Amino acid sequence: MSLLEIENLTLSIGGASILKGVDLSLEAGEVMAVVGESGSGKSMTALTLMQLLPPGSKTGGRVIFDGQDLLKASEADMLRLRGDDIGMVFQEPMTALNPVKTIGEQVAEGIRWHTRVGRAEAEQRAAAMLDRVGLPQSKFPLSRYPHQLSGGQRQRVVIAIACALNPKLLIADEPTTALDVVLQKQILDLLRDLVEEKRMGLLLISHDLAVVAEMADRITIMRHGEVVEAGETSAILQAKAHAYTKQLAEASAHVPSVRVAAAPKTTPSLATDAPRPLLEVQSLSREYPGRRTGIFSREAPFRAVRDVSFSVGHGQSVALVGRSGCGKSTLARVILALDRPTGGSITFDGQRIDILPDAKLRAARRNMQVVFQDPYGSFDPRHRVERLVSEPLHLLENKPDRDERRTLVETALEEVGLAASDMEKYPHEFSGGQRQRLSIARALITKPKLIVADEPVSALDVSIRAQVLDLFADLNARLGVAYVFITHDLTVARAITDDVLVMHDGEIVERGPTGAILDNPQSDAAKALVAAAPDLDRALAARSRTKRAEALRPISG
Amino acid sequence: MTDAALDQPLPDDGFWRHALRNRSFVIGAVLTLLIATMALVSFFWTPYSVFELAVANRMKGLSAEHWFGTDHFGRDLLSMIMVGARASIAVAVVAVGIGIVLGVPLGCYAAARGGWIDEALMRVNDLVFAFPALLSAVMITAIFGPSATNAIIAIGIFNIPVFARVARAGALSLWPREFILAARAAGKSKGLITVEHILPNIISLLLVQGTIQFALGILAEAGLSYLGLGTQPPMPSWGRMLFDAQTRMMAAPHLALFPGFAIVLTVLGLNLLGDGLRDILDPRLRRVR
């Protein structure tokens, strides 16, 4: 009998049908990936298993876990199961831990609750578990607090909590979506090792096929609350029998067609001898004062950006890639004059903007706009689209009147593929991808020469990511906007940029044409990024290699 | 997941359509209007005069002539509550007004500037906070003479740090948000951003705090009046009536019950009004109720 057997599971919340007859089964020691866009019901399936559904939910069908129907289990039974036999790893490591408790306490908590062992023994087991997930006691004692750890380390703690009691089933809901590619690979490797070691069943939820291709034994593809296709990973990914599977597979390695056509472009390299670059950054540094340790003493200042120089020509698009915490977002803010450098200079459109006072930045700001990462956080929820998108019009010398403003907003919305009627709506009425389009419309409305985009697609599903990348590429080709494109994902960089700058620890360690760098990275930082980038074809090749190796190995035990 | 629920278009129709559909707003508005009308009517007409004593009629229970009974001087309780509403509401409204008008800009300014200015402003704030409010109000009225006006000013001063703190905390959590960064990238000054983006987003915090401070204001006025430092007799106020009733609770519980009800209804009405306004003003919450 399978460890987990879901039969014809239905779920409706407040009358809206969320799951429409989901079937899924999982054996012990098996990795099952559930893949789909946001809204496909994959997270809700996981929450149904845990019986952590919002109020007003109605479920139907059967969910047999270890011989017990979870849909009929009492809350007391579920309390026993959650954290003991079923562990869960959440997406956002920043919020999944309690900030006022040490990591030791948080791992030991579950052990003590479920096994009733003493404090000392629970701590001992917690220490062993943290050690197992790669946080050895010598460097990460139990007394650390979450804020003293990086995102990847926190996710390891979350995994330690989930696996502390050797659960039979581990549910990981987008465990790596909030992490950079290098950390993503490390966390996935850790999860795979734990599954093998403890013979757990792993339900791995993701929106990106390429991420799960390497480690899932079987894949279930979901859409609109239904299972579209399910089966053995390599079979599914090779056949791509269903149109939607094909679409998902293509989306994760998407290259906008505009760029394919214009590929052998003039390739303006970074050492450009063009008349005058649009943006010129020279030996730029940004230091933050260290934390205050006493009235007169401070920790050593933190140098987020050190001695960075580069330039961007008109219409050129440059990727700034690096792992999280490498200083790329700080650099973006300094370029946008939202933060001031502590050294070096920035020349934009022939003007030194690093020394201009805020009031004199209007002309520069008009020509330099920004797109942020979080499509939910980048709009004031209280304003309508018309007002939000027209916000930069504030920078024009002669303010347009109401009708002109509406026309401009209309044009901008149409430019990004939205309708003029969307003007009257509020941001919460749009999906993540649409909001990112709004964000681009806002950036475009003053007809800027440069757009700085800070991880503009990393919060989006792969399929939507592809559309937004298309849009960026299209605008570049049509309007000649230059981009500084900040990302940790090389597939994204490859999709739309001419040149790439690799950042590590605040410095630029490698630069050159995107294709050349990605195919043949020289620095360690670039190599790590390239090696960690999820790639469907490579994952498939790796799978068939291990398959063959397994087949050749003599059968033992 | 929630996208499906959000996809239905929002029928868009001004403030009042939303307001009338919001139950707590309607109930709150009715209660508040009722109390306010009562206070206004008392300027022209009350069932009996509150300044004429009729000791023969003292401590009467409820009757057709005196709906709410009479007090220990034989004055009609209903008339007293009507007139008392003036002082209580005026004190609370003006005191909360002083707090909002001075405290909110102060808090927003501190949050926008940051650094040592923020630090200095907030330490001064703490200093005011550290004084026992009622005691200082006693001091102020003792120096400038006991009157309703001085009570208002005294209570109002102690509302300033409360609102400054709430406004600053709300504003601080908004400043690093991306939509604020976007507004800065659009060249807007900190003042303009505060007016356009910060204030609308902290309004719900301020409304909730405002209703709490309003209730506290009525109570503070009652306390000051009890000490003889607020509303001066023979002018009645709800707080004074409550304290007068204190010693006669056993003999005539209605003396305490009616002013108590009046205070509860006013505070409840304002709370509901505040809750309702918060929901109506937030476009994300509009479809919920």
UniProtKB/TrEMBL annotation, chain A:
GO molecular function annotations of the record:
ATP binding; ATP hydrolysis activity
Q: Which GO terms describe its cellular component?
A: plasma membrane
Q: Which residues form the ABC transporter domain?
A: 4-249, 279-530
Question: SUPFAM superfamilies from the entry?
Answer: P-loop containing nucleoside triphosphate hydrolases
Q: How does it sit in the membrane?
A: Peripheral membrane protein
* Organism this protein belongs to: Tianweitania sediminis
Please indicate which superkingdom the organism of origin belongs to: Bacteria
Write one Pfam family the protein is assigned to. Answer: ABC_tran
Q: What is this protein called?
A: ABC transporter ATP-binding protein
Cellular localisation: Cell inner membrane
Annotated PROSITE patterns: ABC_TRANSPORTER_1 (PS00211), ABC_TRANSPORTER_2 (PS50893)
Tell me the protein family, please. Belongs to the ABC transporter superfamily.
The record's section on PANTHER family has: D,D-DIPEPTIDE TRANSPORT ATP-BINDING PROTEIN DDPF-RELATED, TRANSPORT ATP-BINDING PROTEIN
A single Gene Ontology biological process assigned to it is:
peptide transport
Cross-referenced InterPro entries, in alphabetical order?
AAA+_ATPase, ABC_transp_ATP-bind, ABC_transporter-like_ATP-bd, ABC_transporter-like_CS, Oligopep_ABC_C, P-loop_NTPase
Print the keywords alphabetically.
ATP-binding, Nucleotide-binding, Transport
TrEMBL record, chain B:
Looking at the UniProt entry, the stretches that span the membrane are 25-45, 87-112, 124-144, 150-167, 198-229, 249-274
PROSITE patterns of this UniProt entry? ABC_TM1
Cellular compartments annotated:
Cell membrane
Keyword line: Cell membrane, Membrane, Transmembrane, Transmembrane helix, Transport
What's the protein's topology in the membrane? Multi-pass membrane protein
Q: Which Pfam families match?
A: BPD_transp_1
Q: Where does it sit, as one GO cellular component term? A: plasma membrane
Q: Which GO terms describe its biological process?
A: transmembrane transport
Q: Coiled coil located at which positions?
A: none
Q: Which SUPFAM superfamilies match?
A: MetI-like
Primary localisation category: membrane
Q: Where is the ABC transmembrane type-1 domain?
A: 85-274
Cite the InterPro entries for this sequence.
Answer: BP-dependent_transpt_permease (IPR050366), MetI-like (IPR000515), MetI-like_sf (IPR035906)
The entry assigns this protein to a family as follows: Belongs to the binding-protein-dependent transport system permease family.
Protein name as catalogued: ABC transporter permease
Please report the organism this UniProt entry assigns to the protein.
Answer: Tianweitania sediminis
